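Subject: for your reference before the review

Hello V.,

The reviewers asked for a structural picture of the protein, and I figured it would be easier to keep everything in one thread rather than splitting it across files. Below is the amino acid sequence we used in the manuscript, unchanged from the supplementary table.
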Amino acid sequence: PSIAPAARPTSYLCAGCAVTCWALWGATKSIRRGDSYKAQQMFRMRLYGQAFTIVAMLAGSFYYNSDRILRKEYDDLMKERKAQEKRSAWIKELEARDKEEKDWRVKMAKVTEVREQEAKARRAKEEERIREGGPIARAVKKIKEGVE
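And here is what came back from the structure prediction:
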């Protein structure tokens, strides 16, 4: 991210701070050289820079207040939209899971039905074998049929 978009609303603050720092640096140099007149001018410049910075802060807070309010509303709308999308995705996921579960239950019901039919067929076969009897009973039956 660039610093320029963040510095644009505070450019006057940056200028005021720069003037203040420049004045302090100039005052320090003047004091070391022993030039009290120039040092006094630089201290006045520092006061002007600080006053300009305070005025810029107040003016900027009034000027950008409406921008901050609009930005907050925009952020709230985006947050609400994101929550709505998340909720919609969650509902779709639940519906998909519900459909999968219903399909699985239908499949299991079919499997259970087929197994029950197979078990019925096996029971019927066993009952038929029991009625017919074992190999000895069949041989006896054939002999009886042959006698008659």
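For the response letter, the relevant points are probably these. The first helix runs from residue 4 to 7. The mean pLDDT is 87.

Happy to draft the paragraph if you're swamped.

O.
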